[in-house]
Amino acid sequence: NAGVTQTPKFRVLKTGQSMTLLCAQDMNHEYMYWYRQDPGMGLRLIHYSVGEGTTAKGEVPDGYNVSRLKKQNFLLGLESAAPSQTSVYFCATRQGGGPYNEQFFGPGTRLTVL
Amino acid sequence: AQSVTQLGSHVSVSEGALVLLRCNYSSSVPPYLFWYVQYPNQGLQLLLKYTTGATLVKGINGFEAEFKKSETSFHLTKPSAHMSDAAEYFCAVGNAGGTSYGKLTFGQGTILTVHP
Questions:
Q1: Is the peptide bond before A8 cis (omega within 30 degrees of 0)?
Q2: What is the pLDDT of residues B16-52, one digit of tens each?
Q3: Chain A closest-CA separation from residue B91 CA (Å)
Q4: Which residue of A has its CA nearest to B91?
Q5: Is A99 within 8 Å of B96 when comparing Cβ atoms?
Q6: Which residues on chain B are in Cβ contact (under 8 Å) with A90?
Q7: Which residue of A has its CA nearest to B9?
Q8: What pairs with residue B74 in β-bridges?
Q9: What angle do CA B62, B94, A31 make, to 5 degrees?
Q10: What is the mean pLDDT, run by run of 10 residues, along chain A of 114 residues?
Q11: What are residue A99's phi and psi, to 5 degrees?
């Protein structure tokens, strides 16, 4: 089992370019999350999904869009990248049920916007 | 709203010394508390979690944490540090109510350095 995978691992964009980050899971989990990690700020939730075909905004959603057309995939899009979006992006999944269930994290995508 | 504060962004210990990483939380409902570890260039992995029941929770790699409701704390400890413990550690609270149900709120992280 691969668990949670993220594509790509690294990416450099110029301001104004667009890109899509892919998160894939083979754990059959209902919940999926996108976080960004910045030094000294921990992880902040961008968007999340509670099931196929659903998405919702997290703490810092501006400048990002998401889609969950298939249960196993959760896509994060940047329509017009800005230097403030330079960060490390993590995807996570969680089994259904209560908040006591842990989240499982992917290895991350390091994005630099010039 | 729930929040988590980790006291000390950097902690440095000698190999074999006690490790103590501090975490305080704010929650209006009984919390679910987690400690995650992140090794360099990797994702986060669960060390341990508190849900209900016993307040002293044991995790992987010899770590444990004690839930103290009166102090709103969930400090992480390990009796004897190993070089392989060098990593960044995150405390998190699982939201158990309202529109934030099931989401995690993370602390700022503590980088642990272990000296030989």
A1: yes
A2: 999 999 999 998 777 899 999 999 988 999 999 998 8
A3: 9
A4: A42
A5: yes
A6: 43-44
A7: A40
A8: B67
A9: 105
A10: 92 97 96 93 93 93 96 97 97 84 93 97
A11: -70, 0
